[in-house]
Amino acid sequence: MKTILHPAESRGTANFGWLQARYSFSFANYYNPDRLQFGKLRVLNDDQIDPAMGFGKHPHKNTEIVTIPHSGALKHQDSTGSSGIIKSGDIQVISAGTGVEQREVNTSTTEAVSLFQIWILPENEGVAPRYNQKKIAPLLQKNGCSTMVKLKQTKENKLWTQEQAYFSLGTFSEKTKTSYSLHNKTYGVYVFVIDGTILVDNETLNKRDAIEEIWDTDSIDVTASKNSRVLRIEIPMN
């Protein structure tokens, strides 16, 4: 097994006035040849959008887009006719497939909205565009991790992608040790600290730090400190 630590301050930065962003991987004007992607995980942007501002109409194609707000609310509209407002406690999943145009705007005129926008490279290209969102706050385990975005579509599972990806969120009010078993030992796991402090493979990670766990591992143990939140993404590495 190989692990690579990515301190929060090592991320790329951008300030567009209305948008302050931190980039975990090369994006826009930020380029780092050592940070192109992690397997099929291509983008993990940590965005803060000013009141009443947002992204104007723009295209996407053959990309799985997962949006996780952690404060404020964002209004979404796209060329398929889909629309919705996502806020903290929700997750939105879009399969851009054959192509979709969308716009996203902060619903508030007084408060910023903060969110993670994540792009996955799909296993299946050229699919019909699809939009889904779900309120997942009631489903989160106390002092545990809950898998919210999975591979397979079912009646109960509206949040899925065109790739063998698994997104889990952990919320911890007390110090807790958890163990995660991978679906395939050739996959990798990207662990990102939203808030607090965790211990992974003898590495201490603080707010917005991340660690890559790759190469022939069956499971990962994480010890989360009190008042911590963690995002975990399991993804194919090729």
TrEMBL record:
Protein name, entry field: Pirin family protein
- Which family does the entry's similarity section mention? Belongs to the pirin family.
Q: Where is the Quercetin 2,3-dioxygenase C-terminal cupin domain?
A: 153-234
**What InterPro entries does the annotation carry?**
Pirin, Pirin_N_dom, Quercetinase_C, RmlC-like_jellyroll, RmlC_Cupin_sf
Q: Where is the Pirin N-terminal domain?
A: 13-120
Pfam families this protein is in?
Answer: Pirin, Pirin_C_2
